[in-house]
């Protein structure tokens, strides 16, 4: 079972950010150099399948060619069905040259792709002990920290990665997600709706004092600043990697982040929180999303959490993904949210727009 992720997925593209500097440990045997160099050339041209073919020939002819093993690992990492073989290729390169920071970094990345987080962290930390200035190794450390809910540590790793390599797109994605995590807070279990139901009481809560209200406003402004920083990082990521297959979804999220970071103001309208209205919005109909076949086959369960604005005009606006699930379940939840019908909140007798959190549970029976 996969855990719900906060925001974005690990990008597939390695481009050239794992290309090592310096010499390799072993000189290839005669007859293998041509295949190796052709494979490297194809890898640089992003023809990963053909690159792997030539590199496999190279390592077959010269099993001690750590450079050929390393590039074979890179080429195979770009092919989802070859991740185990990519792992073996990097491990072989490391056996041949134990102090290769690049090979340890490549291994950490492919282990990350395989959801082997503790092993990925160990490999990345080894790479950084050898060469502390590898941006991609800091990136891997950050993703592992993020997966554990250590958002501040993940942000520190992302900042270091972007400092070392300002063109490392994936690190800006990590930075955006880390800031988002700081804003959202740690994953909660059981789901938020269940906790609220358990903790609810028929006794009304006392009205907050003015000091408490001011503290809430201060905290909300701080959180909205964090969302603004998250938006900046996401925008940088999209500029550096516009071909991301999920770019359309991320641009929608970017627009929403910009809106929500505007200190509660949308096109000059103040968006209210639940404790700032006279009567809260009342949901009249909330369509339930259905499983995608891909998610059902993968046995995915969990909760998609969204944040949205229930507008004074009765429409749903600016849906922000707080918790996501893979295989199209997040998109199904967003589509369902757009079908909600409700009576708007009011403030002093007038309809107003209000922030709301929506949760969609996906369970297999």
Give an account of the 3D structure.
By secondary structure, this protein is mostly helical. It is built from 14 helices and nine strands. Strands 5-4-9 form a three-stranded antiparallel sheet. A two-stranded antiparallel sheet has the order 1-2. A two-stranded antiparallel sheet has the order 3-6. The longest helix has 31 residues, at 210-240. Residues 1-8 and 187-202 have low confidence and may be disordered.
Radius of gyration: 24 Å
The secondary structure category is: mainly alpha
Mean pLDDT: 83
Major sheet details: 3 strands, antiparallel
Question: In summary, what is this structure?
Answer:
By secondary structure, this protein is mainly α. It has 14 helices and nine strands.
Name the descriptors.
mainly alpha, elongated, disordered N terminus, single chain, 3-stranded antiparallel β-sheet, 14 helices, 365 residues, two-stranded antiparallel ribbon
């Amino acid at each position: 079972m996969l855990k719900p992720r906060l925001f974005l997925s690990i990008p597939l593209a390695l481009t050239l950010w794992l290309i090592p500097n310096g010499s390799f440990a072993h000189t290839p045997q005669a007859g293998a150099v041509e295949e190796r160099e052709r494979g490297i050339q194809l890898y640089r041209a992003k023809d990963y399948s053909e690159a792997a073919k030539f590199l496999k020939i190279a390592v077959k002819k010269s099993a001690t060619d750590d450079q050929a093993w390393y590039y074979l690992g890179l080429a195979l990492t770009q092919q989802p069905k070859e991740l185990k073989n990519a792992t073996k290729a990097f491990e072989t390169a490391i056996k041949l040259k134990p102090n290769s920071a690049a090979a340890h970094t490549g291994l950490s990345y492919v282990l990350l792709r395989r959801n082997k987080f503790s092993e990925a962290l160990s490999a990345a930390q080894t790479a950084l002990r050898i060469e502390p200035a590898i941006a991609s190794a800091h990136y891997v450390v950050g993703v592992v920290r993020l997966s554990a809910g250590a958002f501040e540590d993940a942000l520190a790793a992302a900042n270091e990665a972007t400092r070392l390599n300002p063109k490392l797109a994936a690190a800006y994605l990590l930075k955006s997600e880390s800031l988002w995590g700081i804003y959202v807070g740690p994953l909660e279990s059981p789901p938020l709706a269940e906790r609220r139901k358990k903790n609810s009481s028929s006794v009304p809560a006392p009205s907050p004092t003015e000091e408490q209200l001011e503290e809430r406003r201060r905290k909300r402004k701080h959180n909205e600043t964090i969302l603004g920083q998250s938006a900046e990082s996401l925008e940088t990521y999209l500029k550096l990697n516009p071909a991301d297959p999920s770019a359309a979804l991320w641009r929608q999220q970017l627009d929403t982040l910009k809106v929500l970071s505007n200190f509660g103001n949308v096109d000059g309208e103040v968006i209210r929180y639940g404790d700032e209205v006279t009567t809260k919005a009342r949901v009249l109909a909330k369509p339930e999303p259905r499983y995608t076949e891909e998610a059902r086959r993968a046995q995915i369960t969990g909760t998609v959490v969204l944040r949205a604005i229930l507008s004074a005009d009765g429409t749903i606006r600016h849906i922000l993904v707080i918790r996501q699930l893979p295989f199209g379940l997040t998109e199904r939840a967003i589509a369902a949210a757009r079908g909600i019908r409700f009576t708007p909140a009011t403030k002093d007798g007038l309809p107003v727009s209000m922030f709301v959190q929506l949760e969609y549970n996906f369970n297999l029976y």
